[in-house]
Amino acid sequence: MNPSSPAHAEWLITGADRLLTCAAGAPELGCIEGGAVAFSEGEVIWVGPAAHAPDAEEVIDASGCLVLPGLVDPHTHSVHAGSRSDEFARRLAGASYTEILEAGGGILSTVQATRATDRDTLAELARARLRGMLRRGVTTVEIKSGYGLEVATELRMLEAAWDCRDTVRVVPTFLGAHAIPAEHRGNRDAYVRQIIEEQLPAVVEAELAEACDVYCDRGAFSLDESVAILTRAKELGLSVRVHAEQVVHTGIAAVAAELGATSADHLERIDEAGIAAMAAHGTVAVLLPGAQLYLRDDAPPVQALREAGVPLALGTDLNPGSSPVHDPWSIMTLACILQGFTVEEALLGFTVQAGRALGRTDLGWLGPGSVADAVVVAPPSGEPAEVASLVQHMGGSRVVAVVRDGVRVV
Ligand code: NIG
Ligand code: FE
Fold this sequence. Notes:
The structure is a single chain. The protein is an alpha/beta fold. It is built from 15 helices and 16 strands. Strands 1, 2, 3, 4, 5, 14, 15 and 16 form an eight-stranded mixed sheet that branches. Strands 6-7-8-9-10-11-12-13 form an eight-stranded parallel sheet. Strand 15 and strand 16 form a beta hairpin. 56% of the residues are buried. The model has no long low-confidence stretch (mean pLDDT 96). Bound molecules: N-(iminomethyl)-L-glutamic acid and fe (iii) ion (FE). N-(iminomethyl)-L-glutamic acid binds next to helix 3.
């Protein structure tokens, strides 16, 4: 935030009632009243009060609005085919998520549909979802594989995810350990071996993922299986993350933190030891209130995580089953109502803390050195541009402009 401004910029967002920089080091909203941000050559060149803003070729007037960094969604399953609307009805009638999965539905039903779909179609289906997210201000989306559960489809999903870079910034994660595929039900060891000996090396060889994730839970992978997969992924140079302590407590959050996981996600059933390990290793908690809502689950222990100093991030968990949600603003509202987040924590959770969950220090804040992504948001109709109103009205704010890599895209 250098007050001595450059003379000229390509793009300028100016006159914002409130500009939230979401500072990277000690995460805070960093509110500048009457703020402006200038972009040139795909970079942020200046942030400060509008009175000192440089001239620009293109100007976005943000008066009456708030400006935030481009939002970061650190946990999605955006690449998939098929529909699970029938299961929605079954769950409303009382069936549980794990029962449906153990009977060959759930994730496994999406696996069948995804295996039958080619790369271009998978990318096109994902782009439609991602365009909806971009219109809501999300400029970076983590996308997991995990509906292939064999080498070819896992690779195809990650290729389709990469193809979507024309729509948003994509951070791809390998999730071959999402479920035991039907053909390996009687022989889970063989599937774990396939992940370790075939899937992981192929993904790394093709440079298709930055991280490896594992769904460690009842109905999915055991603690030992998960640790074997994550350990191999680390050896191969991937960062590691986990779906942790969602349906039952397994102990994976603590073990993953010790392995250096950048994040542990869900955490409805994390215990004190897990929280302590995450705090000690700086592991980010990615909380997913969409899944809590759809599964009518209990909240994770946010107050204990907060007191221990665990960084709190939020994601949509966009997927066709447990969280068919792509609106980050609704997730922030749910985080406050269902999980006890403050408004400030919710906004930081979808910006700088989400970047941290992905192991990235350039995402989710605004200033020289950050990615050149920003979102201009109008408050709900007739209201002043207060920070709290962004989160108070579920889905009530209106994104009026999005800048990605220094250029207006919405
Ligand atoms: O994050 N919990 C496991 N995986 C996903 C659900 C994916 C699905 O149901 O298709 C989740 O909630
Ligand atoms: Fe997930």
